[in-house]
From TrEMBL:
The organism's taxonomic lineage, starting at the top: Bacteria, Bacillati, Actinomycetota, Actinomycetes, Propionibacteriales
Keyword ATP-binding: yes
Keyword ATP-binding: yes
Matching Pfam families: ABC_tran (PF00005)
All residue ranges annotated as the ABC transporter domain in the record: 2-228
Protein name (record): ATP-binding cassette domain-containing protein
Family, similarity comment: Belongs to the ABC transporter superfamily.
SUPFAM superfamilies, A to Z: P-loop containing nucleoside triphosphate hydrolases (SSF52540)
UniProt source species: Nocardioides islandensis
Amino acid sequence: MITLESVSRTYGDFTAVDHVTFTAQPGRVTGFLGPNGAGKSTTMRIVVGLTHPTTGSATVSGRRYVDLPNPGREVGVLLDASAQHAGRTGREILTIAQRFMGLPRARVEEVLDRVGLTPDESARRVRDYSLGMRQRLGLATALIGDPSVLILDEPANGLDPAGIRWMRGLLRDFADDGGTVLLSSHLLHEVEVVADDLVVIGNGRIVAQGAKSDLLASAGSMVRTTDRDVLARALDAAGIPMSHVGTDALMVQADADQVGHTAFAAGVPVLELRAADGAGLEEMFLQLTADTQRDNQPEGALA
Ligand SMILES: Nc1ncnc2c1ncn2[C@@H]1O[C@H](COP(=O)(O)OP(=O)(O)OP(=O)(O)O)[C@@H](O)[C@H]1O
């Protein structure tokens, strides 16, 4: 399990990550989505102790990453597939990791096989690897310690379609065996296919999180209100599932009529109420992060 509690990171006056709170659960793939510069990499670096949070805490299996005695046995990390020694062969890189973690030598062959790098490829220097091969090697390094948690930043980057499908199967199997997967990507469709839970970040803040099925529920409404918590309690009391969006909105699994009546009965002012239109993940992603997009602000986007 990965737990973040009110994690923030500032650089001078700039807030890269702003009170981020979420949990990635065992047995589930959690997709971490957001536009360029939203704060995904910074958040992941905080989880693995490469960046210090300004406030808040992040733990893996209940402990801070730096307090894990043999972190590679607990957490497999792939943040940058190009951050590997270019002059070493793939096999050498894995052998160093195997020795460092005190693993049996056979683990090197096992993970090479698991990520589909051939003996010939594993004998080549990393500088001669394609990006897809580097991703496979990075994944092999993440998997070699047989961890229960995987943290992967854009792992499908550079993979061909067959490779993307292979990666999807690998992550699914890992989660089905009880592992925790936190996966960032800008490949929205890829995340939509593989993730069980979604965390969407924009401008350093979480703008939506919850089960993918809830967030993408086709019959649903988006409601914006001055008193989100009161409305959330009223909807909850009526047995209507919802996800929180930004600071003042809810994505509700009920039609606008039902949401309007519930809000009226609870005495909550509604600022905006409309059908979610069964929007796919891409539409939802664009709407939720509209104020952080560089291009093409969608019409009627939530602030
Ligand atoms: N060391 C740093 N000093 C100053 N600003 C930084 C530093 N590291 C990150 N940032 C800023 O923090 C913001 C978030 O960056 P981050 O790399 O976490 O975004 P991201 O969501 O991973 O983006 P992308 O999808 O483009 O990789 C960006 O505006 C970035 O410029």
